[in-house]
Design goal:
The chain is mainly alpha-helical. It has one domain: Hypothetical protein af1432, CATH 1.10.3210. It is 60% helix and 0% strand. Helix 3 packs across helix 5. It is globular, with a radius of gyration of 16 Å. The model has no long low-confidence stretch (mean pLDDT 95). Pfam families: HD (PF01966).
Amino acid sequence: MTREEAQTILTQMTTSESLLRHARTVELVMEAYANKLGEDTSKWAITGLLHDADYQAYPDQHPNVIVNLLRERGEDEIAHAISAHYTHWGVPYDTLLDKALLACDELTGFIVACAQIRPQRLEGLEAKSVVKKLGQKSFAASVDRDEVRIGAELFGVDMQEHIAFIIAVLQQNQHELQLQPQKGTQV
C-alpha cells in the first residue's frame, strides 16, 4: 500500500481536523522510530496514519472497519498492529510494530495536548514537563495513563527518552502541524 492510498482511505472516513492531525503526528513519530530502528519506514508510517482511520465514521466498530479493510488488501501486519493499539482489546503484541504503535499513539496525542496549552507550543517543551502533566489526572483526562506506561514498557523504551524523541519529531514538523509558537511569543 502506498502512502497516497492510505491517505485516501483516511480522508474517506475522517474529516475532523483534530483526528487528521493526530493521524499525521502518529505517522511522523512511527516513521521516525522505524528510521531509527532500521525498520520499514513506509509500513510503520502507514500504520500510524491509519490507526484511527475508522474512529470518526464508525466509533462503535473501531478499529474493526479499518482492520478488515487492510486485511482484504493483504496488509496483515499493519492490520494486526492497529487491532492491538489498545491493551483492553486483548490482542497480543507479536511484533515491534505492534508495540511501537501502542507506545506512540496515546503519548503522541498527550504531548500535542501539552503543547497546545502553551503559548510557545512545542518550543522549549521538555520531557519532564510532560511527565509532570501525566501525573495531573485532570489534564487531558481522556488519556489512559496506563496505556502510556504499558506502551513504553512493551516497546522497551525509557519514558523520558521516549517523550523527548516524540517531542523532537513533532518540533521538526511543527509548522505543518500548526504547533508553532503563537505570534508575539518570546521563545
